[in-house]
Amino acid sequence: MLKGWHAQLPSHTCDRLWVVRPDLRRGQRQTKNGVRMTRATADEGNTKPAFGILIECDGVLCDTHREGHRVAFNRAFSEFGLDCMHFNPHVYHDLLRCGDGSAEGLVTAFFDVVGWPTTLATADRRPFVSRLHEAKQKHMIDMVVTGEIPLRTGAKDFVQEALDAGAKVATIAGTCSTPEEKVAEAALEKLGVGSSDRMRVFMLGASSPPEQQQAQAQPPVESLSLEAQFTRAQARIKEDQASEFIMSLRADRETSIPLGIDPALLAAAKGGKGPLSANFLIACIATMMLPLRQCAVIAGNGAVMRAAKQAGVASIAVPPPLSARGTFPDADYAFDGFGPGGGITWRRVDALLTKQSA
């Protein structure tokens, strides 16, 4: 006669249920009517913790600047009849540190150095740069659609190895591209269905969620009924509370208790505007339901590494080739690309996170 919680199980389940004898020593086997056998193992109870990695798409999975934006600018130059203008990789890399950080500022800095077209009046320079940038954007989108922007060598194998090992993998998109360019979608397609369908994507600079767009399209408060005004106020309070909750996630860095949140709350943390923040990274990692000490951020962009350091998350630098000789003060570890030798491999990341979480 079964007692306790066993008695609540269906009879067919109880027939297959049997208790391992505590008097058996490790390595001895127990059978029951030839059904199945179990054996205590030496590593019983020593389950390895799960790990999570957050990978920057634009700098790590793809070299978006070199293989995407730079090439698109050169095609725009040709379209405008400026065949003598050309960004080689080294020139473009230097230009990224000039200007005001925008694409228009980069082009302006370039022409300020090499000289503006002689047929262009000073007053026409800004409109000219805007038209050139619009042409560049069209070429960029065409390149993404046709799959011309490749993954970095070894990136696909690294992601596959991490997923096969049971790691939770996500990617941050939009650090060097816009949502309209859809670089992340192209990268996921190149990773393959077996990998991309197990990954989560967090997009920076995405447009407002449908709920916010609907609220923005609503008439003024004065024209709403009392019930509608109450509903809108309630929505605002809920959004403010979500934002405060995201900010409080920083406390999770000191605890081993994993904290999971709904990905929809990420909108309250980033607001669709501004640079990547530590709070946004913490919120992304929280959706993995893992403590921060069991996660790492893999980045090629200094701003992402800085945010990771501020968030208290391990930061791993895997910069694009032209930035490989740079210094990364906010990175805990640095690798030259992917693969054996000086590159990053999942085995190395696994060892780092195992040591960190011990």
UniProtKB/TrEMBL annotation:
GO terms for molecular function: hydrolase activity. SUPFAM superfamilies: HAD-like. Signal peptide: none annotated. InterPro entries: CbbY-like (IPR044999), HAD-like_sf (IPR036412), HAD_sf (IPR023214), PGP-like_dom2 (IPR023198). It comes from the Eukaryota. This is Uncharacterized protein. It comes from Coccomyxa viridis. The lineage of its organism: Eukaryota, Viridiplantae, Chlorophyta, core chlorophytes, Trebouxiophyceae.
